[in-house]
């Protein structure tokens, strides 16, 4: 009986990793919300990430009840592995983009860390790395 439960759990968990990030060309995904805020990630390098496995994202949020333009940048840039990103996303979104200047500045700073080799990389989940 226990083996059957583990088999079902294993199939459920492996299904979560079957998400094809590249298939959602917009690159905007909902992540875990808080009690008062919806949150999502914007993938800025979707095309190159499909080969490198390293995604450069920003995390955006909007308090429940606020107008659509009242968004907050929660993380300007985060480098995240595919495994960590897939562990974080809940559903694809059709809207949610913002102007990229803030991300671009934070990404450029990240690239300069460690003598130009880049900074830290999240490999657990986006929420855990925030």
Examine the secondary-structure arrangement and name the CATH architecture. Alpha-Beta Complex
Radius of gyration: 16 Å
Number of domains: 1
Overall mean pLDDT stands at 87
Number of strands: 5
Oligomer: single chain
- Unreliable runs: 1-17
Strand content is: 25-35%
**Approximate shape:** globular
- Tell me the CATH topology: Cathepsin B, Chain A
Kindly name the structural category.
alpha+beta
The CATH class, by name, is Alpha Beta
**How far apart, in Å, are the first and last alpha carbons?**
39 Å
The neighbouring-strand order within the major sheet is: 4-3-2-1-5
- Number of helical elements: 5
Summarize the structure.
This protein is α+β, with helices and mostly antiparallel strands. Helix content is 38%, strand content 25%.
Question: How would you sum up this structure, described in words?
Answer:
- It comes from Venatoribacter cucullus.
- InterPro entries: DUF5086 (IPR031561), DUF5086_sf (IPR044935).
- The chain is 38% helix and 25% strand.
- It has helices at 2-16, 46-52, 82-88, 101-116, 126-129; strands spanning 28-31, 37-43, 54-63, 72-81, 91-92.
- A five-stranded antiparallel sheet has the order 4-3-2-1-5.
- The chain starts with a helix and ends with a helix.
- The chain has one domain (21-129): Cathepsin B, Chain A.
- With 130 residues, it is of the alpha+beta class.
